Amino acid sequence: MSLSKITFSNAQGQTLSGRLELPADQHPHNFALFAHCFTCTKNLSAVRNISRALTSQGFGVLRFDFTGLGESEGDFEDTNFSGNVEDLIAAANYLSQHYKAPSLLVGHSLGGAAAIFAASQIDTIKAVATVGAPSNPIHVQHLLKSSINEIETTGQAIVHLSGRDFTIKKQFIDDLETKSLPDTVKHLGKAILVLHSPQDTTVGIKNAEEIYRAARHPKSFVSLDGADHLLMNKEDSLYTGNVIARWSSRYVDIPTEQHLKSQHQVVASLGNNPGFTTSMKVGNHYMLADEPESVGGHDFGPSPYEYVSAGLSACTAMTIKMYVARKGWDLHGVEVHTNYSKSHIHDCENCEDQNAKIDTFERAIKIEGNLDEKQIARILQIADKCPVHKTLHSDTQIITKLV
User: Fold this and answer.
1) What is the per-residue pLDDT across 132-156, written as a single tens digit (0 to 9) for each?
2) Which residue in 245, 10, 254 sits closest to 118, CA to CA?
3) Where are the extended beta strands (E) located within 122-243?
């Protein structure tokens, strides 16, 4: 996973702070926006875990703090639900301008309601997933019930939420009352996934039923049985992220992997994209090769020489295992650590050339088991007889032709 701090401006010109997470082994096939819960931040553990589950399956994810929360500018007391929706639209615009327009919107709790309203205004969104969302934004009044009278009378009140004090103004409540989520979700026209825990004591499961009933197909419901509202159990939030990723794959465009074909054992294919990320078919397996970022690559896969070193390590371990098995020795495990470099030649015909170097593989072998010194010495001798070792030492020819 690649994580970077980003900032962008909301409709009022205030700076909002976010984190952009990208897959560690590929360019994102799609981008997702995450809307956090009421008075939460982008750094809530559930938000991080769901985002990372999505990136592990190829999504790029932007999670950010709504205006007046976390690291974002603005005063929370001057915000409202409509402002949250506008923040999501601003975030979508940022992704469109700098990366790729988002196709998936994920919202937690009140952020789920905001995600539905925002999705209705962002054309590129193809799928929406809500987690523990209220069926109407006005549900927030339930959290403020002890302060509603004061808010109505004086125009504002200080309420204690999520371990902090927040000033809530009447305009916040008034704004909630103008929003009808059932009407919006009914005409959404996009795939929707409703995830909710039957044990959610903050936003009852009845809310999920109302959202699901109001929505048109394609719609899906997943019960997060045993989870709490904030998904504080890591397993619950990772499960949620994985479910969202798999579900959304039916509705967002994910490029089909290129299935390379060849009469040879190995084929490598490199397109005209920037960098050196190379798709490979090795036997019956598909993998990537790349170069480090320091030389212009993306580090999405091992370098060519790392693959050569890996072949030597694997072959050495297998050869030792086969030999010891035939001998019936008590070997518990073997590790082969290999590094590749070019070293100065010590014994050579042109030693006057100070730049003369030779390809060098440094191999270290760790052996575990009930073995005596004589057996270990023999194993080290056998290591030098592994087929890849012999190939690297022998005269080799490479015959090249145009396909």
Assistant:
1) 998 887 776 666 666 667 767 777 6
2) 10
3) 127-131, 156-161, 164-169, 191-196, 219-223
**Running DSSP on this structure, what letter comes out for residue 364?**
E
- Largest Cα–Cα distance of the chain, in whole Å? 96
3-state DSSP call for residue 35? strand
What is the Cα–Cα distance from 178 to 180, expressed in whole angstroms? 7
Residues in the chain: 403
Q: 92, 123 in Cβ contact below 8 A? A: no
The token duo for 218 is: 């394609």
Q: Give the amino acid at 94.
A: Y
Is 0.85 surpassed by the pTM of this model?
A: no
What would the pLDDT profile of 18-56 be if each residue is shown by its tens digit? Answer: 999 998 777 899 999 999 998 889 999 999 999 999 999
Contact between 60 and 28 under an 8 Å Cβ cutoff? The reply is yes
Distance from C-alpha of 169 to C-alpha of 79, rounded to nearest angstrom: 9
Closest CA to 283 of 311, 324, 322: 311
Residue 205: phi, psi to the nearest 5?
-60, -20
Residue (of 140, 6, 135) closest to 60 by Cα position: 6
**Cα separation, 319 vs 116, whole angstroms:** 58
Q: Residue 382 and residue 376: Cα distance in Å, rounded?
A: 10
